[in-house]
Design brief:
mainly beta, 387 residues
């Protein structure tokens, strides 16, 4: 800064070089001056750093673009109704008081976006954000943009709050890591396809739409509530922790992959496996109200499938193949069951076919047959009044 005669960007007397910054200039605001600044003319500079010590606010009165980085560490930046272009990275971190108002225009960032640290007030306004860089990342607490667009071929997001922009589009699969410790967070997939998805905070997330994950889907912390939605996945791992999943929806394995969900409180409402041409490999016991076997292949790996539904808990209308057997299938609460066909050697132990077999010492209760049952050559513990 120069003599700071007024607040206008376009006044050369306000600058240390006594010239208005241009596209080759790195612009720094710091404790040299704390006056507010109005960008009163359309501007392109090389980079902008709003450093600790600056407590004023830069307000746009025209479109604003940077060839390289935008670093924001203290003070205020208000885009008002104008567009902002950042050639490479946007970074706001640290513990100094910062207020970022994205305004009502469009932001376009060619590199990474990170807004983290403490004492940051982020006002999304009605701004649109477009991320154009290849293999870049975005780190925010909440994603509440009016429009969030990713055009790069690869993009990873870190979300420490809710992901719920008004509109979201991506040109390719996106990976997200959710890290919130708060309850009531929201994840709206917007019909997009995701590469990898990780929930590893201690909070809980409400799923607001159907979800498709092509790669690894891990719940390593917190709770996911599927809200009756359809979740399509390939490789799924849910930690051995109570109440990591609350399910009223459908979980469908769409390709050859693995499933691990060992905790008895994490019960799938409906789990669909062994799709045509696919192999499902179980890496733990599984708990589901209903399981559907397609015409693919099962690697049961001596695991047990626990069925907790009360009606038609088992669906297998065509024989599927088995490369390694389950240890057992156990029903709990099942009172009525329709037609199914099981392959030979599905279990190495016994199928517990009772209304209540949660405890082997309490196996009891009849099951009404509403269709033909085909157990193959598998051994049964079969209640005498079960139809």
């Amino acid at each position: 800064t120069g003599t700071a005669e007024d607040n206008n960007w376009s006044n050369r007397e306000n600058w240390s070089t006594v010239t208005v910054p241009e596209a080759t200039d790195d612009v720094v605001f710091d404790a040299t001056s704390t006056k507010d600044c109005l960008v009163d003319t359309e501007t392109e500079i090389k980079s902008l750093s709003i450093n600790p010590g600056y407590t004023g606010t830069i307000t746009l009165g025209a479109n604003f673009s940077l060839v390289e980085n935008f670093n924001f560490y203290q003070g205020g930046f208000d885009a008002a109704g104008y567009n902002v272009g950042v050639g490479t990275n946007f970074l706001s971190s640290g513990s100094s008081e910062r207020v970022l108002k994205l305004g009502a225009g469009s932001w376009e960032v060619g590199g990474n976006w990170e807004s983290s640290g403490t004492n940051l007030t982020l006002d999304f306004g009605t701004a649109n954000l477009t991320m154009t860089g290849l293999a870049k990342s975005t780190k925010l607490e909440d994603y509440d943009f009016a429009s969030f667009i990713i055009t790069g071929a690869e993009h990873s997001l870190i979300c420490s709050g809710s992901f719920n922009p008004t509109n979201f589009t991506a040109s390719g699969p996106v990976s997200i890591e959710f890290t919130s410790a708060d309850s009531g967070e929201v994840f709206n997939p917007f019909g997009q396809t995701y590469q990898d998805l990780v929930f590893d905070g201690s909070g809980d997330w409400q799923l607001q739409g159907n979800l498709t994950v092509l790669g690894q889907f891990n719940i390593t912390g917190g709770k996911l509530i599927d809200n009756g939605k359809t979740v399509t996945f390939v490789d799924l791992s849910i930690l051995n922790q109570d109440s990591a999943l609350e399910s009223t929806g459908n979980w469908v394995q769409s390709a050859t992959g693995t499933i691990s969900s060992p905790n008895s409180t994490n019960i799938f409402n409906l789990l669909s496996v062994t799709g045509s041409g696919n192999t499902t490999t179980l890496e733990s016991d599984i708990y589901a109200k209903v399981i559907q076997f397609g015409i693919g292949t099962l690697a049961g790996n001596a695991k047990t499938v626990h069925l907790t539904g009360d009606t038609n808990a088992l669906t297998s209308n065509s024989e599927f193949s088995v490369v390694t057997s389950l240890s057992s299938i156990k029903t709990e609460n099942l009172s009525s069951q329709g037609v199914f066909h099981l392959p030979d050697d599905l279990v190495s132990g016994v199928i517990h076919w009772y209304n209540n077999s949660a405890d082997d010492a309490q196996d009891d209760g009849s099951i009404t047959a509403t269709g033909n049952w085909d157990f193959g050559n598998n051994s049964l513990y079969f209640y005498g009044d079960s139809g």
